[in-house]
Give the backbone structure.
Amino acid sequence: MNNADESYSPLNESATRITRRTRAQKIWLGLKKAPLSAWFGLIVIIAYLLVALFAQLLAPYGEAQIFPEPYAQWSAEHIFGTDQIGRDVYTRLIYGAQNTIGIALVTTFLSFLIGGGLALAATITRGWTDQILSRTVDALMAIPSLIFALMLLSMFGSSITSLIIIIAVLDSTRVFRLTRSVAINVVVMDYVEAARLRGEGIGWIMRKEILPNIMPPLVAEFGLRFCFVFLTVAALSFLGVGIQPPAADWGSMVRENASLIQFARYDIKAAITPLLPAAAIALLTVAVNFVVDWFLHKTSGLRDEF
Amino acid sequence: MSSDTAKKGDILLEMRDVRIDGFSDERWHEIVKGVNLTLRRGEVMGLIGESGAGKSTLGLAAMGYARPGCKITGGSIMFDGMDLVATREAEKRKLWGTRIAYVAQSAAAAFNPAHRLIDQTVEATVRAQLRSDKEARSDARVLYKDLQLPNPDTIGDRYPHQVSGGQLQRVMTAMAMSPRPDLIIFDEPTTALDVTTQVEVLAAMREIVETFHVAAIYITHDLAVVAQMADFIKVLRFGEEVEQADTRTMLEAPKMPYTKSLWSVRELEKPEDKGKDIIMEIKGVDAAYGDLKVLDNVNIKIPRGRTVAVVGESGSGKSTTARVMTGLLPPLKGEVLFNGEPLPGALKERSRDQLHRIQMIYQMADTAMNPRQTVEEIIGRPLEFYLGLKGRERENRVIELLKMIELDESFMDRLPSELSGGQKQRICIARALAADPDIIICDEITSALDQIVQEDILKLLLRLQRDLGITYMFITHDIATVKAISDEIVVMFQGKVVEQGLKSEILSPPHPDYTELLLSSVPEMDPDWLTHLLEERQKTEGQTAAE
C-alpha cells in the first residue's frame, strides 16, 4: 500500500492498530514493568487481605475469649501475650485486620458512591445543582473533619453503621472535588454533547460517556482515600468513639495497652505490644501508597523515557 | 547574520538520503525514508503532503532537530557547510533562532502569554548579541511595519492575547526575521486562520522573504497556498518523495498519479438544484451566550433533500445557528420550524422522534467519539436508542452502515485511536446515519482532513444524499467545499445573514461587500493569484481614496 500510484481507498488508510490483549495480559504486562516498591506494596496488601478474609481460620483463639491472666508475657501459648483483661493479643491483631480493613473498605466505597455520583451529576447538569452541591461541599470541608466526626458520633452514637455513614459522608466531599475537577474536562467533549443530542439520560452519560474516561485518577484516589479512612477509623477508635469492644480494632488496641510502654526498661517485649497494631496500620498505609504512586505514574503519562 | 560573501543562488541547505525513525506502539518505525533536498539562498520550497507524510518531521530535520520520540538515523544535512547530523546539540543551539528560524502553526501556543510581544520578538537576536537591545527593538518596529501590522510603533507593547490570530502570526514572522536568518521554516503558518486573514498573512510573508533574500521551506497541505509562496514544490507521501518540480510545471502538468489526484480535489462540483419544499426553517432567531448576543434576526430556509452551505469567518455565528437548530441553545426570540411545525427551543422538551430526525457531525472527529467505546458501540447505540435494535439485528445493521461508508466489519472492534482521520469522520457519518435522520448538520467536518480525504468524504456525502435523500446543512469556510457540495449558500457575518440564495446566484457578481471579500480571499491554484489580487485591491483602495 506504500505505492504512490495505487488508487485511494478508505479501507487502507494508515492507522496504528493496538495489539488486542485480554485484561489479564495487560495487567501482567504492567506488573512486569512495575518497580520493586510497587511489588512490595502489592504483596503486603494481598497478605493483609488474606489475613482479613481468613481471620476465623488463622486466629488461635476467639475474638473476645478471656484468659485468666491479664498482661501475660509473650509465650508459646500467647505469642504476643494478653491484654489488660486477658485477651490474646495475636488473635485480636488478626481480627482487627478484618474489622478495620472491612469497615475502611465499605466506608471508602460508600464515599465514592456518594461523592463521585453527586459530582458527576453536578458536572453534567451544571447551573444551580452544581452551585448548591459545590458550596455545600465547601462548607463541610471548612470544618476540621476529625472534630466534626467526633461531634456527629456523639450525637448519633458509635454504632458501626453510623461510623461508616458519618466517615463516608465527610470523606465524600474530597471525592466530590476530585471527581468534579476531572469530569469537567470530559463533559465539554463533543462526544458528551453528541450523547445529549441523542437524548440520553443523565445516568447513561455518567456511566458510559464520562466514567470510563476518568477512571485512572479515581482509582488512584481510591487507594489514598482508603488510607485516610483507615487512619480516621483507627484514630476515632483510639479516642474511644470508633469501633466498640468487644470487637477487636487496631486503634483501640493501641489505646488499651498504651500504658505498657512505660515498662520498657523492665520488659522490652511488653513495651512493644501496644506498638504492634500501630505498626500494622503504618505498614498497610505505606504499602497502599507505594501501589498508588506506581499507578499514578503509569497513568499520568509523565514519562520521559521512550 | 548572513555572511557578506553569501550570494543569492548559493546552495544553503543540502539534505542527502535523510532517514528518521519515530517511536510508536512500542516500536521504532521509519517515518522519513531517504529524502534528498537542495535549497539555494533566496529560494522558497513548498513541501506538501497529507498528514503523516513526514513533512513536519522533515522540516524540523532541516534544522538538525528531531522532536521527542524521533531520531535521525541516517543521511547528511549540510547547512552552509556544516553537517547538522554530526554536530553537537550545543553547537546547533547557536544556529537555531538566529540562522535558522521556525514559524509554527499555532502562533497562540508559541508565544509566552506573560511577556510583551516586542520582548519576545527581539529575544533571540539580543541573546545572541547580534544587535544591541535598542537596535533590535527599532528594527522590530520596522519589521512590524513591513508586515503591515496596525500601529507598528506600539503593537509590540501588547501581550499576545491582545492581538488577533492573524496579527500574532505576523508578529511571529517578525520574530523569525529579527536575527536575519539564512533559512526560515514555515510549518502550516496559515492553516488556523480565516481565509480573509490568511491573504494578509501570506502577502506579508512573501514580501519579507523577497526583501531579505532568505531561503524558506513552506510546509502545508493546501496546494493553492503553496502555489502563491513557493518557487518549487516537493510532494511527500509515506515519508518518500513523490515528485519535485518548479511551481508552474507542477501545477500545470503533474507527472505522478498521486500528485494528479491531489490536484483534482478542487474540481469536484455538484450541479445545483432548487428543491421543492422546505424541510427546516429558522425564523427571526436571536440567540446569546449570557449577555453576548451572537445571532441577530437570523432567517434561513433549508430545502428538502438538498444541501445548504453556511459560510462566514469564525465568530460569524455559523456554529451557533447549528446549536439553535439542535436545541443545545434555546433562542431568545424566533422559532425553528421542522416540516412546518415549530420545534421546542430546548433539547429536553423535544421528543425522541424529533431528535433522531436532526443529526449532527462535528469538525473534530477525535473529540466527537468516546475514546473508550468501540466502533460497534458508537454506531450501535443510536440504533438501540432510537430504533430498539438489539443483539444480532443491531450487529447486522452496524455492518450494513459500515459498508455504506465504504468500510467493513473488520472495524467493529476498533477503538477511535486505531482509526485514521478520514476513517474517524466516516464513523461519525455512520453514527449520524444510524439514527435514520432527515437532516444532518455538518459543522466544518472536512476542514481538519487532508485534501484527498476531504474529496472522498464529500463524494460519500453526495452519494448518500442521492441514495437516501438526506438534507445537509453544511457549515464551512472553504469555498471549494461549498462548490463541491451545495445547492444553496447562506453567507453570515457578525451574527447576521448577509444573503441566501442558489449557489450560482451567490457565487456570481454583483456581491455585497462582505461576500466579495470572502470570495476573493479564497486562494486559487494559480501562482499569480495573490499578486493579481493584491494589485486589484490596491487599485480599488486608490480609487476610494481618490473619491
Q: What stands out?
A: The two ends of chain A are 28 Å apart (CA to CA). Chain A touches chain B at residues 2, 4-5, 7-11, 13-20, 189-191, 193-194, 196-200, 208-209, 212-213, 306 (CB under 8 Å). Chain A has a mean pLDDT of 84. Chain A has twelve helices and no strands.
